[in-house]
């Protein structure tokens, strides 16, 4: 496990150098309504959203982008991370993309639902790459849910908590 960094946007030294798969943990104090580009309106309950993605061009740059609020809206997740910054990022460096397996593991967490079908899953057969849970999910529980054959550990980056911006 990586040590926590309290810096919200300059978590540089603890970010992985390679490419791989990641999960964003985004806390929502209140229910959140988003208009997500072509996907349309999405309603997310209060609690925690887990978003799963892969960065084959490098994890560090991608994670930094997700932690930044000012950005062009490109991916579905951008519509969420511009109003609510991730509190935690989990990752694993690997040559290939494992995001669909991670999304399936996320659904094994207690009380997991997919409030936004199709979110982040335009290019695969998953129901959604956005999973919602009521209580803050723990990286250890998620790592266990990944099951056998998975990496011996996953990296964890904690960011400073920033409250949900009303929009
Ligand atoms: Zn998928």
How does this structure look, described?
The protein has four helices and seven strands; from the N terminus they run ββββααβαβαβ. With 167 residues, it is an alpha+beta fold. It has one domain. The strands form two sheets. The chain has a five-stranded antiparallel sheet. A two-stranded antiparallel ribbon has the order 2-3. β2 and β3 form a beta hairpin. α3 packs across α4. The chain is globular and about 35 Å long. The N terminus is likely disordered. The structure holds zinc ion.
Shape: globular
Low-confidence sequence ranges: 1-13
Mean pLDDT: 89
> In the residues, how many domains can be counted?
1
List keywords for this structure.
single chain, 167 residues, alpha+beta, five-stranded antiparallel sheet, two-stranded antiparallel sheet, 7 strands, 19% helix, disordered N terminus, binds zinc ion
């Amino acid at each position: 496990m990586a040590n926590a960094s309290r810096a919200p946007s300059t978590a540089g030294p603890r970010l992985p150098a390679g490419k791989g798969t990641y999960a964003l943990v985004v806390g929502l104090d209140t229910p959140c309504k988003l208009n997500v580009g072509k996907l349309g309106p999405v309603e997310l309950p209060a609690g925690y959203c887990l978003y799963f993605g892969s960065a084959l061009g490098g994890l560090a740059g991608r994670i930094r982008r997700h932690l930044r609020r000012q950005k062009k809206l490109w991916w579905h997740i951008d519509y969420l991370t511009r109003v609510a910054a991730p509190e935690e990022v989990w990752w694993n460096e690997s040559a290939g993309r494992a995001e669909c397996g991670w999304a399936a593991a996320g659904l094994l967490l207690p009380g997991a639902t997919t409030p936004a079908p199709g979110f982040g899953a335009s290019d695969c057969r998953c129901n959604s790459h956005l999973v919602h849970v009521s209580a803050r999910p723990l990286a250890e529980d998620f790592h266990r849910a990944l099951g056998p054959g998975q990496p011996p550990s996953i990296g964890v980056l904690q960011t400073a908590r920033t409250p949900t911006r009303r929009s």
